[in-house]
Amino acid sequence: MKRTEDTLVAQISRSLSRDANPKENARLLGPGDDAAIYIPSSKSDLILTCDWFLEGAHFLRALHPPDSVGWKCLARAVSDIAAMGGEPTCFLLSLALPQNCAGKWLESFLGGLQRASKRFNCALAGGDTTKRDEILIQLTVIGEARKSTAIRRSGARPGDLIFVSGRLGEAELGLRLLRRRPKQPLAKNAALRKHLYPQPRIELGQWLARNKLATALMDLSDGLSIDLQRLCKASGVGARISSEKLPLPVMGNTRQTSRLNRMQLALNGGDDYELLFTVPRKRVHRIPPQWRGLPLTTIGEVTRTKKVLLSLPNGRDVPLAAQGWDPFRS
Amino acid sequence: MKRTEDTLVAQISRSLSRDANPKENARLLGPGDDAAIYIPSSKSDLILTCDWFLEGAHFLRALHPPDSVGWKCLARAVSDIAAMGGEPTCFLLSLALPQNCAGKWLESFLGGLQRASKRFNCALAGGDTTKRDEILIQLTVIGEARKSTAIRRSGARPGDLIFVSGRLGEAELGLRLLRRRPKQPLAKNAALRKHLYPQPRIELGQWLARNKLATALMDLSDGLSIDLQRLCKASGVGARISSEKLPLPVMGNTRQTSRLNRMQLALNGGDDYELLFTVPRKRVHRIPPQWRGLPLTTIGEVTRTKKVLLSLPNGRDVPLAAQGWDPFRS
After folding, report:
1. How confident is the model at residue B320 (pLDDT cuts 50, 70, 90)?
2. What is the distance between the alpha carbons of residues B14 and B110, in angstroms, rounded to a whole number?
3. Is B45 helix (H, G, I), strand (E, B) or coil?
4. Which of A177, A179, A327, B45 is most buried (most C-beta within 10 Å)?
5. Dihedral, B7, B8, B14, B17 alpha carbons, nearest 10
6. Residue A290: is its pLDDT beyond 50?
7. Cβ <8 Å between A4 and B125
8. CA distance readout (Å), B299 to A215, B93, B244, B248
9. Which residues of A touch B147 (CB under 8 A)?
């Protein structure tokens, strides 16, 4: 008798164990039992995070290649581990699928997920599958950080400088390009690649944590304007960032967009998965302008007043409106 | 500016931290950051599990009280930890809600979840929330088991006796009663209580693990007929169970149901969250008929042949058809 749920679980396990990390495998009894067994390192704290990735809300079946859906669902959950300065170790996949996605769509999805799993050194530990009209994906990632080195959002202090990695707003730009021309070649466009295949900044986060360089750290998932407010609120501080210092998206060979639009993208675009962090002035000299090829940019400073302000080129400070993505607002 | 997603996260954290376990709190940096930090015990292995609990598939908004939905979503995920002989420690909640459930429904849901969290000693570590037309719930539970004591499904050996805890088919019976009379008083009916507020057998699982009594262990979530096949497949063995030995559901003051129907319920009813385990003959004397008031019943034995058979009262053995719940079959 064919047990379809068990068959599906077996297919997922097979796809994802193909290139699993042998180091992790020795510490992990993965899928197939009631639960997974994981032997944590005695030198580490655990980092736990979970993320929805839902058809219609986080991706569109007609627009997003299943391979990208597989990559991105893991990449964005892993980014929360990077945002604590941790290292991902294993993940649990909860997947609800329409019957007509159980063939080709699933195969391609698992391909992207498998590459991400290999790239991020993060093995499948277990999961749950069921049938549903729409594709529902939920990822839980377990990571580790050396004892007491994980960096929270709440440590920013007045006078600290504010940094971001990479360029901001590119993923949002990539989404707009994809909507305009769904079939364009991926290789030609960095923004499109960033939207479809984001790269969580795992190594940078770990470097900041191990060297105790950052007082506060988070990843930019909903947009700088909302995420910076969250960091400030958690730390009980304010911030002043300079519009002229923002690392704006590069437009590449696409239609020219005004500087104002590029700034809007950098302030409010979501899905970049770059890191936002604060560094005390006495340690700023240890932050290079580029880290392994990734730009690190000072965009402003932490202030005592709890306001979050944007300095405009004319010298005026205006309150920074939190306009990033919030599913309950739309 | 009101950030609705952040407000919702704060409400969930507040509700669930009220009665959190201080012992666990010292080891847990819970919700509010990019990810949770958890300090695992150096004497334990981690147990990881996750579970869907979806409107329409696992519960019905019109039929199931939100308080029960809150209790049950954690209880059934915790049951997977019990099924390894582990102890739950913390959980992550992924919740997608319609806007019109963000008030009263949510409050009642969180009430049930909070009681379960307290009862199972399992604290909220983090989660993710979003908006959706239907209520989607996903739980990940982290548990611990003393090093190398977790019990898998795969250790059953020919000659071992097969045990189940409690009575089988009661939760399914409770669901049928609920469908027939949605407003009946809960207190009067054990089957209804078991359907709405299942009790994972955490202490029993731990007792079996710590005393190395069971060679294989799992929980009965989809029904004995399918779950026993899974245990046998994982162990590379078969089984013969006796229809006359099954602990049938007690009908209480409800309409009399035939013995045949009660047997069908016991074999194929899901959602009982009782434990199924195998014990080598030389250790069987250590398994009492009741454990802390919970019946433990021998229902059959593990066989060398890979068939799973049901012995009927007339002495005939028939293949046991796997008719438990499988979302991809219906």
Report:
1. very high
2. 10
3. strand
4. B45
5. -140
6. yes
7. no
8. 60, 36, 8, 11
9. 39
Within 8 A by CB and 6+ apart from A191, the residues are A170, A171, A173, A174, A177, A249, A250, A251, A252, A254
**Res. B258 pLDDT band, cuts 50 70 90:** confident
Enumerate residues 6+ apart whose C-beta is below 8 A from A281: A159, A160, A161
Q: What is the 8-class DSSP label of residue B33? A: B
Q: What is the pTM of this model?
A: 0.93
Residue B194 amino acid letter: K
ipTM of predicted complex: 0.91
Report the gap between the CA of B124 and the closest CA in chain A (Å).
11
Question: How close is the nearest chain A Cα to the Cα of B327, in Å?
Answer: 6
Residue A329 has pLDDT above 60, yes or no: no
Residues in A closer than 8 angstroms to B29, CB to CB, are 152
DSSP characters over A19-68: T--HHHHTTEE-BTBSSEEE---TTEEEEEEEEEEEBTTTB-TTTS-HHH
Do the Cβ atoms of B140 and A50 come within 8 Å?
yes
List A residues 253-292 in contact with B (Cβ-Cβ < 8 A).
none
CA B100, CA B16: separation in Å to the nearest integer?
21
Chain B stretch 42-61, residues whose beta carbon is closer than 8 A to a beta carbon of chain A = 42, 45-52, 54, 57
Tokens of A262: 């590029």
Closest residue of A to B276, CA-based? A34
Whether B198 and chain A come into contact, CB under 8 Å, resolves to no
- Over the stretch A37-93, which tens digit does the pLDDT of each residue have? 999 888 999 999 999 999 999 999 999 999 999 999 999 999 999 999 999 999 999
Tell me: pLDDT of B142 over 90.
Answer: yes
What is the longest distance spanned by two Cα atoms in chain B?
73
Quick one: which of A48, A37, A79 has its CA closest to A142? A48
β-sheet bridge partners, residue A300: A162, A241
Over 90: is that where the pLDDT of A18 sits?
Answer: no
Here the tokens at position A128 are 């749950």
Structure confidence at residue B50 as a pLDDT band (50, 70, 90): very high
- Cβ pair B166, B277 in contact under 8 A: no
- Alpha helix (H) ranges present in chain A? 4-17, 22-25, 66-82, 104-119, 170-180, 190-196, 202-210, 224-235, 259-268
Query: Which pair of structure tokens corresponds to residue B62?
Result: 């019109």
Residues across chain A = 330
User: What phi and psi, each to the nearest 5 degrees, are found at residue A112?
Assistant: -65, -40
Contact A151, A227 (CB under 8 A): no
Tell me the chain B residues in contact with residue A131 when contact means C-beta distances shorter than 8 Å. Answer: 57, 327-328, 330
